[in-house]
Amino acid sequence: MAMLGCGAPVPGSSALVEDPQTQELVQTSRLLLQKVLMAIPETHRSSVQSESLKLNSSENTKLVIMASTIGIPPAPVLKALSENFTMGTCLRRISEGLQLHRTLLAVIADHLKNKDRVLALQADIRDLNIQINKMLKMVGEETVVPPAVTLNLPADYEVQVAAHLTLQQLQTFGRDVDRHLKSLDKTVDEEPDDR
């Protein structure tokens, strides 16, 4: 699962973070990310009918082998900004993670009867990634090419598990992204993390 720690600003990145255009992109990204995070539970309810597959359940750890069998790649790991993990590197990993989940959802949606919420979530992820790509360009980084993903989905149960695991992983990754974006948002006072 993705991990993130927020540390002190990296030398050289503070001028970019203070830039009004960057702040606008950060704030827009945070709003879009909240939209994505808020849509995950309802998307899960509409696409996962198995009673045993619940978001935020301790039982989810038992599905690690299924994730590997189905072929769900892990989300990129996010770290605290440092000289070795720059803002550009972090933004690139955020973009990689967003594109990974968007691609996974596209593959899964092809196997779902009720795909409206999944398609809407994909659109929100796309919109968020557009903002992240704008920040990537501002730090002089190349945008990320979407990954090719092939999932082993021979039956409905595997589709249900793939949808469940993808949404669970997206939720965890999204919370990590939110902590990172919050650390870049200069309009936010140091408020406690309520998650």
UniProtKB/TrEMBL annotation:
Q: Which GO terms describe its biological process?
A: positive regulation of myeloid cell differentiation
A Gene Ontology molecular function term of the record? cytokine activity
Q: What is this protein called?
A: Colony stimulating factor 3 (granulocyte) a
The gene that this protein is the product of is csf3a
